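Reviewers of the previous submission asked for a worked example of the structure-prediction workflow described in the proposal, so we include one complete record here. The input consisted solely of the amino acid sequence. No template or homolog information was supplied to the procedure at any stage.
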Amino acid sequence: MRGAQIIQNLVPGADIGENIQWSAYKVPGREGVEIYPLYNTDDTGSNGPSAALVRYQAGAQVQEHLHPGYELIYVLEGVLENDEGSQYPGTLQVCPPGSTHALGSEQGCTFLVVWEQPVELVTSH
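From that input alone, the workflow returned the following structure tokens.
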């Protein structure tokens, strides 16, 4: 396959960040978050899927948001906290369409995420 991205050592316990060019995730409601996009709506269309490696700095918080489509989160490093509790390396979480959650990490974490559709921030009325 020509043009494929190869990212090695994405296993719990490896130094995942050493060979990745992280960028600040400049999206409202996401504080202390860095991202390495694998593919996104620029590639798949405005309502298409996206995937990324995401790194939360210690104390990062992500505002409650809605998933119109499935979201898969696979924790690689650290501890991800959400409405379901603490998620440790090796944990896969499948969020169904219509689900909402807020996320954070007291100590920091890295995970792989696949979004079936773009997420929507939940605003209070």
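Helices lie at 41-44. We consider this example representative of the routine output the project will generate in years two and three.
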